[in-house]
Structures are given as structure tokens and as C-alpha cells.
Design a protein that fits this description.
The chain is an alpha/beta fold. It has one domain: Class I glutamine amidotransferase (GATase) domain (Rossmann fold). It has 7 helices and 11 strands. The strands form 3 sheets. A 7-stranded mixed beta sheet has the order 5-2-1-6-7-11-10, with helices on both faces. Helix 1 packs parallel to helix 5 and helix 5 packs antiparallel against helix 6. It is globular, with a radius of gyration of 17 Å. The termini are far apart.
Length: 252
């Protein structure tokens, strides 16, 4: 069997790039699968680990306990619990219907874990309503952030002095990245990994996935579709999607 020629990540990360992705009952599958699929393919070239984390190791269903969806949901396998999760460079927290459920029952396990780990992280990422966990943990206080445009009113009720950006596809504030809803997590992950590892390598990965990322972080057409307060209705809904692996540009 061929041995993959992996390269070490940039020096700020040490010998491997150690990534954690939080799971919980009712996570949105694409919030997890999209970013982790890019990371999976990238691991052929860059030395990395990916840990999936919940209260306990084992299967975690993407169906929220309070959902009325009639079908059984897919599950992901949590490799670690919050208690035994390894040291991490990057932590990603997805959104999903379960974020509302956990908030309703005042379950703060994810907020507690994020708050505990943040000082040792290089980067903290949220996808979709995963930003609600960061806001409730106080990790967005004094920062800019964005979230799912279809569920705008839920995450934006949390946090102190958070500047929620209604038109953004994703927002970068220091070492905290937050994306809009669901598929925006793929766009943010593309941009994030391009920033830390280089666009040529990540461009090759998204070409393999046959995905054309939305590359303008400041413009999310779904802010108009979902009538988010403060959305820029003068922009074109078709702007800024480009062919993967090409030189990207977008004019306003």
C-alpha cells in the first residue's frame, strides 16, 4: 500500500494540525460533513488529527430530541468526550436544530467546553447557529460575528456587545471565524484553510470535491432571501460564486 507523503503544518501548530469538531443531538449534518470532508482530503497532504467531541464517545444523532421530522437521522461517531478530548489547535462548533433544544433546557456543556478550551486554541470556528454557543459562552463579546440567515433571531439574542453582521457570508474577528448557515460552513472552511495553509493546496482539494466556493466573505445573498434586518438589497443574488481552483474575483 502506498504511503502518503504528508507535510507538517505551519510552525504555529507544531508537528500536527489538531482539530476538534463538536457534536450534539440535532447537529446539522452538512455543518459537520462539509468542513470535515475538506479536512479529510487535506489530511493526505498535511499531518493532522480530527476529533469528534460530545459528552461521551459513541454515536450522536443529527435528529434533535424535540424534532418532529418523521425520518431517522444520520449519526456521527464521537471519538472523545469533553472530559478526555485531546489538546486542540482548532475547534469548530456546528449549528442545527439541537442548538435551540440545548438552549431551551439550559444545557451549557458546549459553552463550558468552548470557554475552557478557548485560551489554548489557535482558532475557534462556528458554522450556522453554532455561533449561539459562542455568544452564550461570552466568546463573541466585543466581536463581530454572523450566523444562519434563516434563523437570524435565535443566535443574535445572546452575547454582550456582539456586532452581528447581517450581510456577511462569514466573519473573521481575530482568531474567531463564524459563518452563515449550513453550506456557508464549506465556504468559510475553504477560506480559513486557504489562509493558514495556502490557496493552491486547498484549491486542489475543492476541485476534487467539484465544489465552487462562494468567496466574498462580506456578501451573503441569503441575507436578502431571508429578509434579515440590515441586509443590503441592492446587491445581486448571483454574485461571487466562482469556479473552484481558479483565480477568484468579485466586483460589487
Amino acid at each position: 500500500m502506498a504511503v502518503l507523503a504528508q507535510s507538517p503544518p505551519p510552525s504555529e501548530f507544531g508537528p500536527s494540525l489538531d482539530i476538534g469538531i463538536v457534536l450534539y443531538p440535532g447537529f446539522q449534518p452538512l455543518d459537520v460533513i462539509g468542513p470535515s470532508d475538506i479536512m479529510l482530503l487535506l489530511s493526505a497532504s498535511v499531518n493532522m488529527t480530527i476529533s469528534f467531541i460530545w459528552k461521551e464517545a459513541g454515536p450522536v444523532w443529527a435528529r434533535s430530541p424535540d424534532t418532529q421530522l418523521p425520518i431517522q437521522a444520520p449519526s456521527f461517531m464521537a471519538t472523545h468526550s469533553f472530559a478526555d478530548a485531546p489538546p486542540l489547535d482548532i475547534l469548530l462548533i456546528p449549528g442545527g436544530g439541537g442548538s435551540r433544544y440545548l438552549s431551551a433546557i439550559n444545557d451549557t456543556a458546549i459553552e463550558d467546553f468552548a470557554r475552557e478550551r478557548y485560551p489554548s486554541l489557535k482558532y475557534l470556528l462556528s458554522v450556522c447557529t453554532g455561533s449561539a454557543f459562542l455568544a452564550k459562552a461570552g466568546l463573541l463579546d466585543g466581536r463581530k460575528a454572523t450566523t444562519n440567515k434563516a434563523a437570524w433571531s435565535f443566535p443574535t439574542e445572546f452575547g454582550n456587545n456582539v456586532t452581528w453582521v447581517p450581510t456577511a457570508r462569514w466573519v473573521v474577528d481575530g482568531n474567531v471565524w463564524s459563518s452563515s448557515g449550513v453550506s456557508a460552513g464549506i465556504d468559510m472552511t475553504y477560506a480559513f484553510l486557504s489562509t493558514i495553509l495556502g490557496s493552491q493546496l486547498i484549491g486542489s482539494v475543492v476541485n476534487t470535491l467539484e465544489y465552487a466556493p462562494h468567496v466574498n466573505k462580506d456578501w451573503d445573498p441569503y441575507s436578502v432571501v431571508h429578509k434579515v434586518p440590515g441586509a443590503d438589497t441592492s446587491r445581486s443574488l448571483g454574485e461571487c460564486v466562482g469556479p473552484a481552483g481558479y483565480e477568484f474575483s468579485c466586483s460589487g
